[in-house]
Structure formats: C-alpha cells, structure tokens
Design a protein that fits this description.
single chain; about 325 residues; alpha/beta; D-Maltodextrin-Binding Protein, domain 2; 5-stranded mixed beta sheet; 11 helices; 10 strands; about 45% helix; about 20% strand; globular
Length: about 325
C-alpha cells in the first residue's frame, strides 16, 4: 500500500510530467531567442534575419540577438547553458568549432543539440578597391617584397579565416600581420577604408562592397570557382595549394542546448528545414552568395564531428608549423 508521503510524491511527479508533456506538445508557446555570436551585419546575422519571416509563417517567432566575442564562444556559451526547452537557439559555425577543436574554449560540441545546417560558405581573399594589386599573383609578389609587413584581417582568431590567411602568407613564403576582429562586418569596413591591406571573408559579408567596387576579390579558397564570381580564380588554379593538410569547410548551422526534448527537437528541425527549403530562402541565398546544403539532426551531428576533427588536424599543422 502507498504511504501518504509516497502518494503525494507520485501525484507531484505526475503533475510535473503532465506539465512538461503539455509544454512540449504546445511548443512554441512564445518567442524563441536566436543568438548570433557575431556582430550585426555579418554573414551569420544576415542568414538569421533572412530566416526570420519564413519561420514566423511556420509558427516560430524568432528574436535575433547579437552577442559577439571570442570567435563566437561567448554567445555559444549562453546557448549551451540555457534551459533546454527550445526557446534559446544559436548559430554555430566552423569558426567556433575551430576554437573547440584547438582546446581554446571549454565548450564542447556535445553541449549542443544540432538542428539544421543553414549554409556552406567558401572564403575569399579580398583587397581594397583602391589597392594597386589587380591579381592574386600581384598581391603575393607584394607580400614577398614586404615580408612581415602586410596585414590580413579576419573575423576572429584561430578559425578557418585565420587558417587561410596563414596559408596565403605560406603561398608567398613570408610572415604577415594577422588582424583579428569580432566579426566580418567590422573587417569589411576597415578593408574598404584601407586600414588593412587584405582580408579573408565570406562572399555574403562582402557582396555589397564588391558590387560597389569598394573591395576587390583576388582568389577563392576552394577547388572550383564560385558561380556568383566566375571571374575570380581559385588559389588552386593559380598553382597555390591552400589545402596541403586536408580539406576544411566553413559552415553555419542551428543548435539548441543539449538534452532538448525529442518532440521539441523534431518541431525545430521541421520548421527550419521547411524555411531553408523554401524557394524564397533559396532566392535570398542566391542574392547574398550563400551555398545551401541541407543537413539536419543526427546527420548534422556526425558532420559537425567530422568537420571539427578535420579542423583540428589542419590547425595543429598550420599554427605550429
């Protein structure tokens, strides 16, 4: 027979369980906070705000908050430590993954529940529009003549942008000045203004300045030219190997805190998948030079693990060589 105490305990646990089940079944009952761990105006911010109206049509009202710092780890720490109820999400990136892979943050990938990949973004080497260097070969020749004095801006340290800035200097055979910023929006502003001599950025965060002639693209860190920039050569075709230690990829993806209830995770996956697959978002991605490569749930988790391991191998050799 149940004692009075155990009976009360059972009733309390039953009520809590019913309340939790109800909360999950009615998700989302309020606005969802989406943490972009980079400055406003950068590529990840652009992506998040492009998804906002499409998600709202599907019952997910998303409030975007920018919380930059430490190559994305400050904002992502907030996501990792949030209540795992689906109301706090964040934009993970390969840049923050690089910090994790290199042990520069206590954050771990298993602190997140992976929802959906939003984009893959090949990186480009850019110079100011006023730069005298018209080609990749011209710029590398300039670096050779001025060892250790050419500055290359990147959004953060020890990430893919930093890796490719280092590989650019490696192609020239000289040292360079690494100029890290808290986001791509600040890099492109200083590059267009001539405060730095070059930058490694995503096409999306430099598209407007490229179209206005404020900056110029010299090379793409990829195996093939980008369809949106058919006149910009790859480093590979110019004879420079920027993947000597293996391929690495820059991507952006949606995460929630770990231990997210399965029903809530499914609703988020369905909502983001529908928004990313919407033709209007595809058109948005095309206009802003993003590449869409859908991946969700456990398949995304496996890809994040693979990319993190690849970055770890490459970073160890680039930054210690």
């Amino acid at each position: 027979m149940l004692t009075r105490r155990s009976l009360v305990g059972s009733l309390v646990l039953g009520a809590l369980g019913a309340r939790t089940a109800l909360a999950q079944s009615t998700f989302p009952a309020r606005e969802v906070t989406f943490i972009v761990p980079w400055n406003a105006g950068g590529s990840n911010d652009i992506l998040a705000r492009g998804l906002q109206p499409l998600l709202k049509e599907r019952g997910i009202t998303m409030i975007v908050e920018n919380q930059p710092g430490a190559t994305g780890t400050i904002g992502m720490r907030r996501v990792a430590t949030a209540n795992p109820d689906g109301y706090t999400l964040g934009m993970g990136t390969s840049s923050t993954l690089a910090y994790m892979a290199e042990g520069k943050t206590p954050l771990k990938s298993n602190q997140f529940s992976h929802i959906a990949r939003v984009s893959i973004d090949p990186l480009m080497l850019l110079v100011p529009g006023s730069s005298p260097h018209q080609t990749l070969d011209d710029f590398l020749a300039h670096m050779k003549k001025n060892p250790g004095s050419v500055s290359i801006g990147t959004p953060g340290n020890y990430n893919l942008n930093h890796i490719f800035a280092s590989m650019t200097a490696r192609a020239a055979g000289v040292a360079y000045i690494n100029a890290p910023y808290t986001g791509g929006a600040k890099v492109i502003t200083d590059l267009a203004g001539g405060q730095i001599q070059a930058a490694v950025l995503k096409p999306a965060e430099s598209l407007g300045q490229l179209q206005q002639g404020l900056v110029r693209a010299l090379g793409v860190f990829a195996d093939e030219r980008l369809r949106q920039f058919p006149d910009v050569p790859t480093f590979k075709e110019r004879g420079y190997d920027v993947f000597p230690f293996g391929p690495v990829v820059q991507m952006a993806y949606v995460v929630a805190p770990a231990k997210l209830p399965p029903e809530v995770r499914t609703k988020l996956i369905d909502g983001f998948s529908a928004a990313i697959g919407d033709q209007r978002f595809k058109d948005f991605a095309e206009r802003n030079a993003f590449l869409i490569a859908p991946l969700t749930g456990d398949a995304l988790t496996a890809e994040v693990d693979r990319v993190e391991q690849s970055i770890k191998v490459v970073a160890e050799k680039v930054f210690k060589s």
